[in-house]
Amino acid sequence: MITDAEMLTHLTRFLAGHRATPEALLAEVGSTFGPPLLVVASGSVLHGFGNASSDVDLHVVVDDRRVTDFPVSSHGLGVTVDTTYFEARPVRDEAAALRAGDGVPAGAERAVWKAARSRLQRLGRLSFGYALDGTDEWRAWQADLRPVFVDYAVRWWRTEALRYRTAARLLADRRPLIAAVRFGDAATAALDAYATAGGEAYIGHKWLGLKLERLGRTDLLDAYHRLLDLPTSAEQLPEYRDHAEQLVARLTVEQPLPDDPYVTLTPAEGATTWQVHDRVLVHRWGLRGVELVDGDAGADPKLAWTGQVSALPADLRLLTEEDLVWMSVSEHRP
Questions:
Q1: What is residue 130's three-state secondary structure?
Q2: Rounded CA gap, 93 and 103, in Å?
Q3: For tag attachment on the chain, is the N or C end more exposed, with fewer CB atoms within 10 Å?
Q4: Which pLDDT tens digit goes with each residue over 135-154?
Q5: Which H helix or E strand runs over 82?
Q6: Coil, helix or strand for 287?
Q7: Sheet harboring 325-330: ordered strands across?
């Protein structure tokens, strides 16, 4: 696991290339929202992945409700600095949810999933960044959060691997090329889980290859490169699918993913229904749609179906294949 000393070394070296210092970086924090409780420098630079054109993120926790969680950019140091202010209470609440085991949503709508993904990124940067300043209480909060976040992130990526693999299997017959992308997504998520458990806790797909290289897993790096070479013809699909599925199985051998997980389906963003007599058109922004019979599970405008994927009704499977529903997945009944 990366240490504070290593993060400070990476940051200092990067800033020196722009004739700046950590002290000058700290001076970028304003006093509009009162004295900061915690100032964390975060981003790829801190983890040794950055380059000369990278930016630096400052996450500032303050006791003020006026903050918008919206980054403010500055360029006075010769490098882009994105400073984001966060209210202390919600940050504490989000961390408490992780400690309570409530971090990975099961049976959640897309909006809930997106909020959880934002929480993953936010708390990851707060916990695995370098504290330039802060009270003793908040510095201790950061240190205590790190192992909790790692456990949360590993579970997140495992759940994502299961979600993508489930979607890929559902799409395999009617949408084979899209299914191939999802198989690749599943294996990539499993690799992210492995890298995180191995100490590479920085969230960012584009750095996955470097994480695996730093962990000394050239075999997994080669497997990852194969995932990036997506199939473009039907002849290439079986080999790609087998590679992705076998990689997922290999990375989860100690705790295999269930073959018949629970899924929850809710309408996709922009999906609505239009009924005429006993027929119902489920469409998405009027661009694509599926005609169902009134009374089918998928014809319900408030669709919220939960069950094991093996019990998925034919009409709901069709909506899944046509990208008209959002699917969340759980290893156990939600």
A1: strand
A2: 11
A3: N
A4: 999 999 999 999 999 999 99
A5: strand 81-87
A6: coil
A7: 305-308, 262-267, 325-330
